[in-house]
Structure formats: structure tokens, C-alpha cells
């Protein structure tokens, strides 16, 4: 599965998923379409996208372990791959404590959930784990195809690759803003990450990258925003994505912000996939 993903994937909220979007991304050369958010266990949004395309991989980014039990998710996995073998990656994760009242012993929950996926016959190679910190990154490398971190920098990717070793998938998701005016691009980026500043998992991840509480105040510092969101021209955006690849990413997931996500996907594809 890892090889089938290619160098670049695209991410959008599930609410925007359409077969036409999947077709367009496949034509542009993207290897995968990742859903943003927590889909229901039936994963009913996946099959129409696979039906409409020839080789695009569809990945969940992520199924929330607190929200949906492993058994029905595994049933959906088997239904999907029976029709489209080799084209579905089951991304799972723990979410954020601020959004889940049941959030207790999260590491134990992840291990238990992966055990249940094992019992249900979901192959290690066809699943990925949302991971930011060292302990969960190690779990991702040991128990899944690899890690899918979000809102991280190329330095995080470098550290994650060193921890994972050469083999496992490392698929960081990096937001981009296609806007040549630097001030406008930064304003869009500030708005996009505002809610994430209150999520402890992201704050802890950023602290490990030498950001401080000052960077989280007043809507986030320019330093933080510029590090986790690539804004500007196609060449500037492509350069940041390439930094992740150079740092050891297997596959970089492009999360397009703004009113016309396809414009950014097209622009990035022209630089990196043409």
C-alpha cells in the first residue's frame, strides 16, 4: 500500500468529497485522497470515490477510536477492499482530549483498538495511525503501515523518520494557502489554525519543536503560523512540501485552505507532479 500512495496526497473535509473531486485529483497525479475529520463507521463516502477512479487510493484521516468501535470499522474495510483491493488505507487515531469526554488512557485505547483490528483481519499494511509524539510514532511503526501526523514542520518529519527507521510510512499533512500576497496568506493561515491552538496534543507537539506559550497566544504567532502552514506562490508552497520529502516523508498530504482548494492542488501538481 505504501508504494501505491506516491509522493503527494490531497486532503479535504469529508463534506466536500465528490467523485468529480477524486477524478480531478487522480488526473493531476495525486496518489491519494485523504478525508479530513471523523467519518462514520460505515465509511460510505469511500466507495463512490473509488468507483469513479482507476488507481487513486482513498484514505481516512482519521477514524476516531472513541467514536466508532473497531468491529464495524473492520467490516467496512473488508467490504471496500473486496471491491477495490489495494486502494483503501484505513487511517485511525485517538483524536483530542478537548473533544472527547471518554479520553482516558489514550495509549492503552490505541493498543486495544489495533488488537481488535488484528482480530478482525485488517492487515497492518492497510492501516495507518495518527501520531505526533515519540511513543505513538513508535506504535505506528510497530503496529501499522506507519504514521500520519498533522500540523507539523519538516523538523518534526526529520525526527519522526529517525525514530521510525527507513521502512514505515510517514505521511505528514501540511496545510497550504495559494495566495501570492504574503499578508493575505498569513491571515488565512492564522484563521485556519486558531481552533487548533487550544488542542493540547498539538501544543505539546509544537513545544517539542521549540515553540512556547507565547507562540500560542493571541491567535498564534507569525512564527508558528509560518512554520505549520505553507502560504504564497506555487513555488514557495512546493519548496515547503519538498522539505518534508527531503526530511524523510514517504508521502506528503497537501491540505488546501481557502475558497478554491482545487486551484492550490493544480498549482502544486504543476510544480511537483508534472
From TrEMBL:
UniProt keyword list: Oxidoreductase
Domain Luciferase-like: 14-117
A Pfam family the protein falls into: Bac_luciferase
A GO molecular function held by the record: oxidoreductase activity, acting on paired donors, with incorporation or reduction of molecular oxygen
Keyword Flavoprotein: no
Record protein name field: TIGR03620 family F420-dependent LLM class oxidoreductase
